[in-house]
């Protein structure tokens, strides 16, 4: 599917109360354009639930369900099994969770659903912290990033640990489809969304990078640019893992991470040593992903 | 006792202003409380903050419904929020506006002080953050707290959050705004639509709720009903579109988080739905042909 072939109609409509420049809202808008009207969505607690469904208003034109924070994959799997019982195998069941709801709170449900190979699409829109509750660190927060729970002071300066690699965890489950995407590479993103939609009857996991201007302390207009830069620096590898075979979709240019970090206030305090550590992480990540692609070729 | 209601936008610092005023009143030996009120909306949405000051202990815990003073940090709010709602007729409005008080229309005629806090903030802080400047205006317009206490309040509240250096700058902004107020009486020409007071209960929801959007007494409900929520009012910057230069690449249409850009029938290219545009500027940033420019 090309960008021009996307339908004009939205199934995630305007009037939602996301912050100006919200990356998550764009991700969901585009994903819903691809998934279309024959979709049932599930949300754990996340920004999307709040800005898309402020009672009594609702931004979704498709059914959507919320139960608890930790059971996105279970609830989506339940919907999917009920639909199967009713003979409706064409309907996509999509769980949209944030990175906190995926990497930390929702991981047991996610792992179980992947292991049982439930017929659902799980989309993690990764804004790299718990933004809904006011920017707390999550497992997916990158090294050095400021959050309210990894403050910058004399003892520590931002998060001291590295980002949890959730797609790799999903690959370890041998899930039939695992892919990473960003808004910066449109044909790649659309291809992956479409593949996830059309690959019926199995577990599909997508991790999509979603810039958060207030949480990352950056200008609201930079979402698209930063989504491209994160791939160029090597901090985010674009790949897909399909039926046991891993393909890297984009070779990073390995531009210095400093170009990426200097646009974001959450990295403002980074020292030369911190930047060197982050740079090394990017290089290691690219090396490991290459080796993985080799192993799963 | 006097009660103050602050009107601002998420991220503008109305809450910190309310707290700094409470601190200033406390420095002068009063009891004071300050607290915010906001919904699930995000940065840019209208928010409220309250300050209550008394010589005695304060036992009221509710929101301020009938303020003695209102403080408006963003003049555009007055276009769609009835900021003077419930304001005591003997009360006073302190507004961030370059206009004279007589030119401002609040829908009720009350004593009004205006100050161009945005200009003051740009001069002193280098950024249009008006929460400290407006406090200086409050002190000089009402005489309830001294400017020195307000400066102290700003240092106490802002310091731990943004650092002492920036807090001192903010205190200077308050002092600069102190001498630049204009006092008069505002106009009462416009009327605001009556605000919805209650949300419908789930028993009041129509049975068709799950299948199609339905009109109820409290507005639209059901799938896709958020179109009722005109988020365009959050906007500070507006896209200016040059159709000549546009190559119809649809990048803006793709990236707009608010789906405020629509494809039009050829030969027209794209159109902007200003009811929903929040003014984030992504369209300007991604446009390869420089056909979009964000203007104030």
Can you identify the CATH class of chain A?
Answer: Alpha Beta
Determine the number of helices of chain A (DSSP H or I, runs of at least 4 residues): 11
Largest interface (C-beta under 8 Å):
A-B, 46 and 52 residues
What's the rounded overall pLDDT mean of chain B? 88
The radius of gyration computed from the alpha-carbon positions of chain B, rounded to a whole number of angstroms, is 22 Å
H/I helix tally of chain B: 7
Largest sheet of chain B: 7 strands, mixed
β-strand percent of chain A reads 5-15%
Q: Given the C-alpha coordinates, what overall shape of chain B results?
A: globular
Helix content of chain A: 25-40%
What would the CATH topology of the largest domain in chain B be?
Pyruvate-ferredoxin Oxidoreductase, domain 3
Tell me the span between the first and last alpha carbons of chain A.
26 Å
- Residue share in β-strands of chain B: 15-25%
How would you describe what is shown here?
The complex is a heterodimer of chains A (297) and B (296). Chain A has 297 residues and is an alpha/beta fold. Chain A has a single domain, classed as Rossmann fold, CATH 3.40.50. Helices cover 38% and strands 14% of the residues of chain A. Chain A has an eight-stranded mixed beta sheet with strand order 2-1-3-4-6-5-7-8, sandwiched between helices. Chain A is globular and about 60 Å long. Chain B is α/β, with parallel strands linked by helices and 296 residues long. Chain B folds into two domains: 184 residues, 3-Layer(aba) Sandwich (Pyruvate-ferredoxin Oxidoreductase, domain 3), CATH 3.40.920; 90 residues, 2-Layer Sandwich (Alpha-Beta Plaits). The radius of gyration of chain B is 22 Å and the shape is globular. In chain B, the strands form four sheets. A seven-stranded mixed beta sheet of chain B has the order 2-3-1-4-5-6-7. A two-stranded antiparallel sheet of chain B has the order 8-9. Chain B has a two-stranded antiparallel sheet with strand order 10-13. At the A-B interface, helix 1, helix 2 and helix 9 of A face strand 9, helix 6 and helix 7 of B.
